[in-house]
Structure formats: structure tokens, C-alpha cells
Amino acid sequence: MAMVNNKTQCFKCNREKITYPCKGCSKEFCFTDLSEHKQILNEELHHITNGYNEFKQTINERKQNPQNHSLIEQINQWERNSIGKIIQKAQEYREILIKLSETCINDTEMKFNDLSDQIKEIQKENEFNEINLNYLRNELTEITEELNNPLKISIKEDSQSFINEISIISSKIMDKHGFLYVSDREKNEVRQWKMGEYNNEGIVVAGGNGRGIKLNQFHCPTFIFVDEDQSVCVSDCNNNRVMKWRKDAKEGIIVAGGNYQGRNLNQLCLPTGIIVDDLGQIYVADSGNHRVMRWCEGKKEGEIIVGGNDEGNRSNQLNLPYGLSFDDEGNLYVADERNHRIQKFEIIL
């Protein structure tokens, strides 16, 4: 009677042996190679753990020393450059004022000397009356005022600053035409840039009308998404809404939220990351509600796609979701900020 052959080929040594499956990689290994495979996995886990520990150490260091942020040095350099310009301009204006003052004093001194000669002449001849005295008195008063308050010298402040202003930039994205879009939460605007165009200053394509709740305003714009038609979707964080500005539009339209801060399906709470799929559906990281919402343009309500089960670290929970991204297969990736992880979700359209 023939023995049953229960041997299969080992993935590692390619020999026919009794093998054991690895559920992670779905490969078959003989006993010896399975042990080595587990050892490799343990080493990889150890490497990942070290990476997590190093990251935790970095976070703690940055929390303890926020002044060490790389952008702080840029601000410090801007401060030094600005102070240098102020000192230089102030010195230039001092020198100009000194020269003007010297000229003014010389002119006044000449008038004084002439007046002094007239007084000496009157005293010498001893011939004067009230008219002469009033004349001398008025002349002395006039040259005194001219010396103390020169009418030809004044200070005028220009409304346009010679110091380059800086702002805090929260998000930027580039479209297929090579245009760079930057959201500026300090100026409450989104600018479009292209190298060598717009005098390297960019043009405002959304907002730029101060902070507010009107359709042509933002209150802390953060993330941006630009579609094929160069329409710009912006998460208007502190207004708890997502705005869409079509190309060359003077104001935007609300495509998500905009019904005050809240947890209802028609509300958002501090939205951040946004992305639009091929069907035009808008996905919003509803950070304050620890969920990801999907909105169809024109609809009054959105639907919860991920999370919405209170904040937490379980697989069906989020804790301050921030950034969103799709891969080529349509899977959604969520940067789960306070859980220090990125979660992948298969989305049902």
C-alpha cells in the first residue's frame, strides 16, 4: 500500500518537504525555513519598533523645545533682515534731516545776523520809535518760530511697507498645468502661482476679502483640491464648511457643511483634508467629529464613510483625522493624527 504524499515545495529551499503556511505572505515553508522566516519577521518588527521609538523621542523633543522648529529660523532671519532694513533706512533719513537742518539753521542765522546789524545801527544812531520796535519784535518772533519749526521739513509715512511681509502657509498643491496653489490662513486667501508669471506675486483665486463668513471670504482656509477645470475646493476650517470656487469666480459656493459647527449629517466640525473622486464626490476629514464624510455637490447632507464612532484607537475609530488620499485602486488613506497612524479603507461607491 503506497504512502500518502503530503509534501509540498518549500518557498525558500525549493525542496519537497512537509511545509507550514505563513498566513501573512501566504507562502509555504519547511520547518527549518519557517523558523528563519519568523526570525526575519521578528527582526523587521524590531526595526519598526525602533522607528516608532525614535519618532516618539522626536515628538517629545519638539514638544519640549518648540523654538527648535525649522521654520522658526526662517522667521528669525526675516526679523534680522527687516531690522537691518529699518536701521539702514533710519540712518539714511537721519543724515538727510541733519543736512536739511544745517541748511535751515544757516539761513536763519543769516536772517538773525542781518537783524542784529539793524539793531546795532538803531542803537548807534539812537533814532527809533514804536514802528521800529514792533518791526524788530516781529522779526525776532518769526526767525525764532522758523528755527524751532522749520516749515519745509516734515515726516511722511508711506502706506506701502518696504519690509517684505511673511505669512503662515498651511497648504499647497500643483495642478496638471503647472500652477501652484497656496492657501494662506493669515490672509484668508488662496493664490495661484506659476514661475515667471504674475510678477512672481501670484493671483488670488479664492478669498482675499478678509476674514468672514460671506461667500467671498474665508476664516482659516487649510486644505485645497484643484479639479480638471481648475475649480478650487477649500476646507474653510473655522467656518465649518467646504467651499468651491470655479475658475475666475468672484465668490464660492458651499459644497459641504456651512450649517454651523455640529455632528449632524449637514454639519462639520473644523474640516481639514479634502479630496474629490472621479465621480465628483467630495471627501472631507471632519476632524472635530473624528470621521470622514462624503458629499455630493448639491446635496444638503453628507454621509459618514469612515469613523463616526467617537474618538478612539479601534479600527473603526479615528482621533482627529487630518489628511486624505486615494491610491490607483480607489482605496482611501486617512492620516489619523492623534493615533499616530495612517489607515487604509476600501470605499464602496
How does this model look, in words?
InterPro entries: 6-blade_b-propeller_TolB-like, NHL_repeat. It comes from Adineta steineri. Pfam families: NHL. This is NHL repeat containing protein. Residues 105-139 form a coiled coil. The chain is α+β, with helices and mostly antiparallel strands and 349 residues long. The chain folds into three domains: 8-64, no CATH class; 70-148; 169-346, Neuraminidase, CATH 2.120.10. It is built from three helices and 19 strands. The strands form six sheets. A four-stranded antiparallel sheet has the order 5-6-7-8, with no helix packed on it. Strands 9-10-11-12 form a four-stranded antiparallel sheet, with no helix packed on it. A hairpin with a 5-residue loop joins strand 9 and strand 10. Helix 2 (70-125) packs antiparallel against helix 3. The protein is elongated, with a radius of gyration of 37 Å. 20% of the residues are buried. The model has no long low-confidence stretch (mean pLDDT 85).
> Main β-sheet: number of strands, strand sense, barrel status?
4 strands, antiparallel
CATH topology of the largest domain: Neuraminidase
List the secondary-structure elements in sequence, H or E.
EEEEHHHEEEEEEEEEEEEEEE
> How many E strands?
19
Helix content estimate: 25-40%
> What's the number of structural domains?
3
Which consecutive residue ranges, at least 5 long each, have pLDDT under 50? none
What is the CA-atom radius of gyration, in angstroms?
Answer: 37 Å
Query: What does the overall shape look like?
Result: elongated
**CA-to-CA gap between the ends?**
57 Å
Under CATH at level 1, the class of the largest domain stands as Mainly Beta
Instruction: Assign the structural class, choosing from mainly alpha, mainly beta, alpha/beta, alpha+beta, or little secondary structure.
Output: alpha+beta
